[in-house]
Design brief:
Blueprint (H helix, E strand, L loop, with lengths): L2 E5 L4 H10 L5 E4 L15 H16 L5 E10 L20 H11 L10 E12 L2 E13 L15 E3 L4 E2 L5 H7 L1 H15 L6
Parallel strand pairs: 1-2, 1-3
Antiparallel strand pairs: 3-4, 4-5, 5-6, 6-7
């Protein structure tokens, strides 16, 4: 039996990225129906928001195939954890990457020391299957740059520098980013779990 799950997001970039992460695992990532409208993400944590999305899609589909909700965000130390769960709508408009980045850099313009610009990307996955729900988490640490660098990726990728390689996520190809990203770390944990519990999937 082929392993698969529905991914509770309308973000096509995210779907493509996750399909790429799991391409050699034998696990199929299925997009939600085109006409679905997800409820507002009102959770105070990544876990709550991931569950809201997964739970909604599970109820709509009424199928035995597992459903995965994912919530990701950028957490900046000196901004007391902002933008956090509001990362996608930080500027007030959901998914406006340019405006979100502009607001972030403006808030940090007086923080000149690189060490004070520490941040981390967090991804939390909520899997809902017949046995109930389970969470998986992935994190990657880095720094916020002083200006956007790179043309690839989406979200805050152009201003998130990975110290080990001295490049932003937006300077990497999708394959390179997926090797080290927070999303990769969370979804690889999910893949291991699904393979291990294969007989129990509905």
């Amino acid at each position: 039996m082929k392993l698969s799950f529905y991914l509770a997001t309308k973000n096509k970039n995210k779907i493509k990225e996750i399909q790429n992460i799991l391409k050699n695992t034998g696990i199929e990532v299925l997009p939600p129906p085109e006409n679905i409208k997800f409820p507002e993400e009102t959770g105070k944590t990544f876990e709550e928001n991931a569950f809201i999305k997964a739970n909604y899609l599970k109820k709509v589909l009424r199928e035995n195939i597992p459903v995965v909700g994912e919530d990701s965000g950028l957490v900046v130390e000196k901004l007391n954890g902002l933008p956090g769960v509001n990362s996608a709508r930080f500027s007030g408009i959901h998914g406006d990457d340019k405006k979100n980045i502009e607001k972030l850099l403006k808030m940090m313009k007086n923080i000149k020391n690189k060490e004070d610009r520490k941040a981390k990307f967090i991804t939390v996955i909520c899997l809902i299957e017949n046995k109930g729900k389970k969470f998986f988490r992935g994190e990657v640490e880095g720094y916020i740059t002083f200006e956007p660098i790179g043309e690839n990726g989406f979200g805050y990728d152009p201003v998130f520098e990975i110290p080990e390689i001295g490049k932003t996520f937006a300077e990497l190809s999708m394959e390179e980013k997926n090797e080290i990203s927070h999303r990769n770390r969370a979804f690889k944990k999910l893949a291991e779990y699904l393979k291990k519990t294969k007989p129990d999937l509905g």
